[in-house]
Backbone:
């Protein structure tokens, strides 16, 4: 488990670097107005572990870096063990941001929206893995520039 969490940390930080490198404007809108640092964030399971456990998903499929993102502690507590389609709907209904803005914000974190709202965890992992792989190949081939 420790190694998986390490990968989660590395993957999240890499995605954070990619966000700022490729999506500076969207990332600033996402973090505005305080622009908090990575250190003020917590690791959140996009498909919460309690939700996946209720679905019968084994631990070795829950604690994957592809299922992690950095969020504020308050957001993490509000999401708790809710299925993604529920907490995303609460987010766009409760904030007035709308589905389009929520999709755009998730995209800056390389998170596929459609698979989340369909509650399709295997498809989510496949899609996010493909997205992260493509961006990491680009990042590595350009030397991070």
Residues:
């Amino acid at each position: 488990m420790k190694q998986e969490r390490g990968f989660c940390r590395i993957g999240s930080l890499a995605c954070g670097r990619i966000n700022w490198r490729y999506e500076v404007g969207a990332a600033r809108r996402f973090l505005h107005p305080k622009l908090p640092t990575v250190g003020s964030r917590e690791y959140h399971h996009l498909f919460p572990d309690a939700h996946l456990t209720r679905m019968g998903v084994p631990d070795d499929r829950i604690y994957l870096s592809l299922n992690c993102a950095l969020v504020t502690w308050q957001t993490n507590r509000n999401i708790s063990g809710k299925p993604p389609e529920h907490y995303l709907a609460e987010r766009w209904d409760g904030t007035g941001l709308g589905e389009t803005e929520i999709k755009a914000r998730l995209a800056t974190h390389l998170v596929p929206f459609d698979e989340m709202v369909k509650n399709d965890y295997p498809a989510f992992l496949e899609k996010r893995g493909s997205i992260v792989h493509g961006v990491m190949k680009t990042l590595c081939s350009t030397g991070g520039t």
Notes: The longest helix spans residues 2-22. The chain has one domain: 2-141.
